[in-house]
Amino acid sequence: MGELIPLFPLGTPLFPGIVLPLQIFEPRYRRLMHDLLSHPEADDRRFFGVVAIRQGWEVERVAPAEALYDVGCTARVQAVRPQADGRFRIVTVGGERFRLLDVVVADDPPYLQAEVEWLAEEEAAEEAAGDADGLLTPGAAGATPLCDDDTDDLVAAVARGSLDVLSRGVRDLFSRYVAEVSGLGSGGSAGDEEPTMDAETAVLLDAVSDDPTALSYLVASAAQLTTEDRQALLAESATRRRLTLEARLLRRELTLLQTLGAVPVPLQQFLTPMTVN
């Protein structure tokens, strides 16, 4: 049995450390806000789980566990502004990743709840496994025998160095990608020389320059990728592997931008609510 938490399905995943403002207007989610606000402001239970919708619009009309992706992220409430008409404007920040085990649909509370398992232990194990990917280990052909302490120090040093190189590569690719998108959005062409990145994105990149994990989540949330691509990045527990996947995706997107000369539009913009017709 996992922990039971409130659930808020959205059209796209939320990533740890990413700010998510929301306007709460549906009655069931107004009830969720009242339930969360019943906890003291410093209480760590002021959060809900965000999971991306895999199919459909009204999750309750199909089997919820099948309609939702299985890895999500908590949204921790940072600011709440009640509105005169009963709505809420809130600001949340992505917190911990979790895996969806089951979805609970009930009349009270009226919002979905999810039974989840937290992925902190998996993250630690996958980070270690990701750091070992591609590294030459003692006993392999051409490897020099080392004592255990020397081996640990060497592996750690090489892992840190290669992760820094990978982070710089993704940062450079993302800078080029943002500049291309900005140039096309402002009426330029993909062939314009030296497209520039907007100041806000530059500030965000500087803020995460020394944190590969934060960089990976910033890129995953900011790039105009499909929900499937973003979900694959969220589901990856190892920073190194997440960055490697982002490098491939950014190269693909840059090629499309420069070849087609068009800014991608999220698929959700073309979706309309399902009707009985």
TrEMBL record:
InterPro entries: Lon_prtase_N, Lon_prtase_N_sf, PUA-like_sf. It comes from the Bacteria. SUPFAM superfamilies: PUA domain-like. It holds the Pfam family LON_substr_bdg. Residues 2-254 form the Lon N-terminal domain. PROSITE patterns: LON_N (PS51787). PANTHER family: ATP-DEPENDENT PROTEASE LA (LON) DOMAIN PROTEIN. This is Lon N-terminal domain-containing protein. The lineage of its organism: Bacteria, Bacillati, Actinomycetota, Actinomycetes, Geodermatophilales.
